[in-house]
Amino acid sequence: MLQERKEYLSEAWKDGLFILFCTGGAGSICSAQTRALVHLGASAAIIGRNKEKTERMAADIATARPGARVLAIAGVDVRDPKALQDAADKTARELGGIDFVIAGAAGNFLAPMSQLSANAFKSVIDIDVLGSYNTVKATLPYLVQSAKSSTVGATHPSIGGRIIFVSATIHYTGLPLQTHVSAAKAAVDSLSNAVAIEYGPLGITSNVIAPGPIGGTEGMERLAKSDPESVAKSAKRVPLGRLGSVKDIADATVYLFSDAGNFVNGSTVVVDGGSWRVNAGG
Ligand code: HXC
């Protein structure tokens, strides 16, 4: 049993020292991840394309804890390295650095390959893969600094300088209408693994969270539109007998960004109720 909260959430957590940079932070999954971290003491910047949506979500997340600082940085397309660099610099300037990064911005739609133009395929690859690369590239100097100056103490490994990529499970088996996303997410997983090896020696961890079928997300809503019964059918196919919740993903995020995740690097945390093992594409 947990004896004391601080064993899993270091002293630094209690003081709200950590600063999160999250792309796609206004989306259903990433906003829940951000909300959980802010609730536990972090400050955050959420990065999005749509100004109204990003600002509304930042204000909403800020209610998770009295006095929380949540910055909305809107008008940023993750495909644009300069825009991301400006966002990272602004976050560091206004919040004091960057300790945690969630590369969560993604593009997705259902389309058979026969109706997928080269540009449509490229758009998803660019948002997911290039966007994730741009996110890490822009924040890397701050993560290096965070890992170096961690105040957690000699008895604890550094807790600063951590990255989570939000991926998927569909590419483990393949899924119809998702050739573009399958290719993109496989590359995101590889990117994370390479970052883990290259920057582990500097104290930075890089891991993937792979959500399965999660209720209340944009992806699920699209599925429901294409077939209203599909959501209930998806839930029945999950070995644990239910859809995941955004809280399930937030909990995995807290794990990776807490002391519980100190020695986890280059891993994928699959949060799908066991789904992909029995259903193609989760
Ligand atoms: C075929 C399509 C299409 C569709 C767009 N395109 N939608 N092709 N079927 N349903 C084509 C367009 O015709 C165009 O190709 C090309 O894609 C780019 O479209 P644009 O609208 O110009 O691009 P852009 O504005 O950049 O939009 C990117 C996008 C869009 C990916 C197409 O859906 C988007 O912005 N999505 C971001 C939000 C999002 O998808 N979130 C969901 C994340 S959920 P042509 O040839 O005409 O130029 C998630 C869960 C994954 O990721 C889990 C997997 C199950």
From TrEMBL:
Its EC number is 1.3.1.124. One of its GO terms (molecular function) is 2,4-dienoyl-CoA reductase (NADPH) activity. It holds the Pfam family adh_short_C2. GO terms for cellular component: peroxisome. It is an enzyme of class 1 (oxidoreductase). CDD domains: TER_DECR_SDR_a. It catalyses: a (2E,4Z)-dienoyl-CoA + NADPH + H(+) = a 4,5-saturated-(3E)-enoyl-CoA + NADP(+); a (2E,4E)-dienoyl-CoA + NADPH + H(+) = a 4,5-saturated-(3E)-enoyl-CoA + NADP(+). GO terms for biological process: fatty acid catabolic process. Keywords: NADP, Oxidoreductase. This is 2,4-dienoyl-CoA reductase [(3E)-enoyl-CoA-producing]. It comes from Aureobasidium mustum.
